[in-house]
Amino acid sequence: MDEKSRIRQQVLRKRDSIDPATRKAKDLLIIEKFLSLSEFERSQAILFFASFRSEVSTVPLIEEALRLGKRVVLPSVDPAHKELRLYEIKGLNELSPGYMSIPEPVVPGERERDINDVTLAVVPGAAFDSRGNRLGYGAGFYDRLLSRLKRQIPLIAIAYEEQIVDSLPSEPHDIRVHMIVTDKGVIACRLI
């Protein structure tokens, strides 16, 4: 097993073991911190992910963004091309289990959006370090999607403190995040 797989397994085991009451309290802290970010307040079109399994819940963030009149975009996996396609949603009722049972938009094709239409991206991951390195789930979907950005936008991860590690191995194609919002605070990543 390579180092990335070992770290991924170790951190996901830790994340999965957070008890429900603690998870709920941590989610509230993360949501509060995220919603107070100037990056969120300024953004008009936000790429979110639909939380799955033991990930930080994105449901309250999506609901608040929609309530504030922001455009909300979520990914749908295109397995044939091994890429994420983005669609604007008007409500959570437009999501349905898709690839690996992850909730995905089920909306008309004219709502498809390009990554360059968004002004902020909230990205998932298994583990992160303070330099912004992100360890995903192994398929490379987000690295491929974010590599198509033509301008710099804030890339923000939301994660439990249990998902922060001292250091992650990284490769040239890995896209780093600018900020990580955890239950303990906001980490402004040193992109060095």
Portion of residues in helices? 25-40%
The separation of the N and C termini measures: 28 Å
- Average residue pLDDT: 95
Query: How many strands?
Result: 12
Can you say what the CATH homologous superfamily is?
A: NagB/RpiA/CoA transferase-like
**Radius of gyration over all CA atoms, rounded:** 16 Å
What overall geometry do the principal axes of the alpha carbons give? globular
Number of domains: 1
Residue fraction in strands? 15-25%
Q: Characterize the largest beta sheet: strand count, sense, and whether it forms a barrel.
A: 8 strands, mixed
Structural class: alpha/beta
Secondary-structure element sequence? HHHEHEEEEEEEEHEEE
CATH architectural grouping: 3-Layer(aba) Sandwich
Order of neighbouring strands in the sheet with most strands: 6-3-2-1-7-10-11-12
CATH fold annotation: Rossmann fold
Contiguous uncertain segments of 5+ residues: none
